């Protein structure tokens, strides 16, 4: 079966991110942010995927033989593509963005470009604001091992030649102190950022990397040496926790241990300035134990993720126009949200509409004396979580609060542990997910005593996390409902999380992984195949972050062969190869990268003219289908179903930000077709939605 390897597919996605940095239609400072996103993505890729491949390469030959594909061959292909993208990244930065910044009267200066007056200012700034933050370490015989922190930028200092001239007639004696190698951590956090703004000159604005400020001041730190050469390095460490392979019962202790290991994990990549002297690189390798296979020649500067903090100099025209969160057409701006949800279903579309409706609902539930219980799944929790604070308030007010906390949400474990412990100490019933099964579903259930001693349940089901920070950037769909057909099954999901006993019978409405999601998807695809065999219209539209599962890919290939029309909108990993004669000729694939991160998942099945539309937390990856608790929920309200289909249709029609499988921009067809940018069209369409009772 023809598929694209997962890691190469992901690298294609990151290439789309780089295309946004290259596009002159994107506001200039936003292009710098896409450089930061590309860099951050690649760091994580090395820490997780490349580190995993390197571990696989080191397995015994007999063990490697059990793998479907040679990890050595995969690693070689991945590193070759990374090198190609890194070269394109450097060209984009040097030949496109720096000249564009200059044209916008913003000058990112190196130390060699300073005027005498600017150099004097920078030297004074260094001595007053930077010098005391530096802690150089000498790489000499007294240092047995040098530990470099994960993801921090370090500067090496190569000191050469005593400044004093040798005695007359004696020549230059060999002096081991004449050459020294030192390393210091660039104090980005303690300094307050990576960039230093210099005084403006009229309309001209100037800024420097903190690295270059250190380069200007470094000679003054070592007046006895004639030469002080400064170069940068950055280490990325293995961040794959492999918790699924562990067997300890105390998962919380394991996570703590894994977090500690992450900081000291095996080196996955060390980027270094190719201009670095060989003596310095040799000393680094000797003192850190890093081998040649982890060395990657980078550039003069590392950690381009720091461009998230690049100053805007008040130039709003160089940023995206503001899209303030829109008021919701059916949820009240003040007053009871529970009452509104009790009357009808509502769909929320962050970030176009405010996530504040979710935190408002939690605060209302915490304060409502008729609410008896709140249950929620937490996968990624914001550091200053308003969601968690509302749950703490609910506990304080005597509600029964159940919190299913995912401790293995990569790179968010620390925040999750903090809030889990805080909630547990307050009296909440905190359920930690078992090692072998992540809970990725996004669910909230509120139980309220109503009139005549009855109770009613209110649910929130979403594609996105209960995280106010990411809700400002990630596009998601969320359903507020009191429909008993759904709330009853949501309650059963929480019962499973608590008891770990599989539901006695398949749900009628929710598709629940790891039990019924895969078989139900297979049934839905097979139904479209049967329709196609009968000559009836048959189609499937899928919007996913990732499509990787071999079984479902094979099913989609079979559907294409039967004549089912399949449209894929894939943000990230897409292992299915579309448009292949005799295999996937009825399948098309596009991906969107724009100012917001596409995060929602939507499954549409034609169903003989009575469309079935599901919104889900689950991508079509083996881990989501078989090793996680995931939920796909149907839109039972016809108006809301049409609403999601309209937003999906904007993405299907996008001819501005859409790329095909090969990352080629999709041009308007036929000639003269209107310009459609899906995210902009979504915002404007939601803005025009009139308030409905």
Keywords:
Methane Monooxygenase Hydroxylase, Chain G, domain 1, 693 residues, nine-stranded mixed beta sheet, seven-stranded mixed beta sheet, alpha/beta, Endonuclease, Chain A, 4 domains, 38% helix, polyphosphate kinase like
Which helices and strands, and how do they pair?
Elements: H1 6-22, H2 28-57, H3 61-64, H4 71-103, E1 106-109, H5 116-130, E2 137-138, E3 153-162, E4 179-185, H6 188-191, E5 195-201, E6 204-209, H7 210-221, E7 225-237, H8 251-263, E8 267-272, H9 278-288, E9 295-297, H10 337-343, E10 346-348, H11 356-367, E11 371-378, H12 386-396, E12 400-405, H13 413-426, E13 429-432, E14 438-439, E15 442-449, E16 455-462, E17 474-475, E18 478-481, H14 484-499, E19 511-513, H15 517-533, E20 539-544, H16 550-562, E21 565-570, E22 587-592, E23 597-598, E24 601-605, E25 612-616, H17 622-626, E26 628-634, H18 638-653, E27 658-660, H19 678-688
């Amino acid at each position: 079966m023809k598929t694209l390897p997962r890691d190469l597919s992901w690298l294609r996605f990151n290439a789309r991110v780089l295309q946004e940095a290259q596009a002159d239609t994107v506001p200039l400072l936003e292009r710098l942010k896409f450089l930061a996103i590309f860099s951050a993505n690649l760091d994580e890729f090395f820490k997780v995927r490349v580190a995993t491949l390197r571990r696989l390469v080191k397995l015994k030959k007999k063990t490697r033989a059990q793998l479907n594909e040679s990890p050595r061959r995969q690693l070689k292909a991945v590193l070759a593509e990374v090198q190609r993208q890194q070269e394109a990244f450097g060209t984009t930065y040097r030949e496109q963005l720096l000249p564009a910044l200059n044209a916008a009267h913003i000058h990112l200066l190196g130390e060699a470009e300073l005027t005498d007056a600017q150099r004097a200012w920078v030297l004074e700034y260094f001595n007053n604001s930077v010098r005391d933050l530096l802690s150089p370490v000498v790489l000499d015989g007294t240092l047995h091992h040098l530990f470099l922190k994960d993801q921090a930028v370090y500067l090496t200092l190569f000191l050469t030649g005593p400044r004093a001239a040798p005695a007359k007639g004696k020549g230059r004696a060999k002096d081991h102190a004449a050459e020294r190698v030192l390393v210091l951590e660039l104090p980005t956090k303690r300094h307050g950022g990576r960039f230093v703004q210099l005084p403006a000159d009229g309309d001209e604005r100037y800024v420097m990397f903190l690295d270059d400020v250190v380069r200007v001041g470094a000679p003054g730190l070592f007046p006895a040496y004639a030469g002080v050469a400064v170069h940068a390095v950055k280490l990325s460490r293995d961040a794959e926790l492999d918790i699924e392979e562990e067997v300890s019962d105390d998962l919380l202790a394991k996570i703590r241990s894994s977090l500690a290991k992450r900081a000291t994990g095996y080196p996955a990549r060390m980027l270094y300035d190719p201009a670095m002297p060989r003596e310095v690189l040799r000393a680094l390798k000797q003192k850190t134990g890093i081998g040649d296979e982890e060395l990657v020649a980078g550039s003069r500067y590392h950690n381009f993720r720091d461009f998230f903090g690049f100053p805007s100099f008040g130039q709003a025209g160089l940023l995206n126009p503001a899209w303030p969160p829109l008021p919701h057409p059916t949820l009240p701006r003040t007053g009871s949200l529970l009452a509104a949800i009790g009357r009808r279903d509502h769909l929320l579309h962050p970030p176009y509409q405010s996530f504040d409706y979710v935190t408002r609902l939690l605060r209302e539930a915490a304060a409502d004396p008729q609410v008896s219980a709140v249950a929620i799944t937490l996968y990624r929790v914001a550091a200053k979580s308003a969601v968690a604070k509302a749950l703490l308030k609910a506990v304080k007010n005597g509600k029964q609060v159940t919190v299913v906390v995912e401790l293995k949400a990569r790179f968010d474990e620390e925040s999750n542990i903090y809030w889990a412990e805080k909630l547990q100490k307050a009296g909440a019933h905190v359920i930690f997910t078992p090692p072998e099964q992540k809970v990725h579903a996004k669910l909230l259930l509120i139980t309220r005593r109503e009139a005549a001693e009855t109770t009613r349940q209110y649910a929130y089901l979403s594609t996105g996390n209960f995280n106010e920070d990411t809700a400002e950037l990630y596009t998601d769909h969320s359903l507020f409902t009191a429909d008993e057909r759904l709330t009853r099954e949501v309650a059963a999901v929480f019962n499973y999380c608590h008891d770990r006993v599989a539901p006695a019978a398949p749900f009628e409405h929710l598709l629940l992984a790891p039990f019924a999601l895969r078989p139900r998807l297979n049934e839905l695809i097979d139904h479209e195949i049967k329709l196609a065999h009968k000559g009836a219209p048959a189609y499937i539209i899928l919007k996913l972050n990732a499509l990787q599962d071999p079984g479902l890919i094979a099913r989609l290939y079979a559907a294409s062969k039967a004549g089912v029309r399949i449209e894929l909108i894939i943000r990230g990993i897409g292992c299915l190869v579309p448009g292949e004669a005799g295999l996937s000729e009825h399948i098309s694939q596009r991906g969107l990268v724009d100012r917001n991160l596409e995060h929602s998942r939507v499954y549409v099945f034609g169903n003989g003219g009575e469309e079935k539309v599901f919104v889900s937390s689950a991508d079509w990856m083996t881990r989501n289908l078989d090793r996680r608790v995931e939920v796909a929920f149907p839109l039972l309200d016809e108006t809301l179903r049409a609403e999601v289909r309209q937003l999906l249709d904007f993405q299907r029609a996008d001819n501005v930000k859409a790329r095909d499988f090969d990352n080629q921009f999709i041009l308007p067809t036929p000639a003269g077709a209107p310009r459609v940018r899906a995210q902009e069209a979504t915002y404007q369409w939601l803005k025009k939605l009139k308030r409905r009772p």
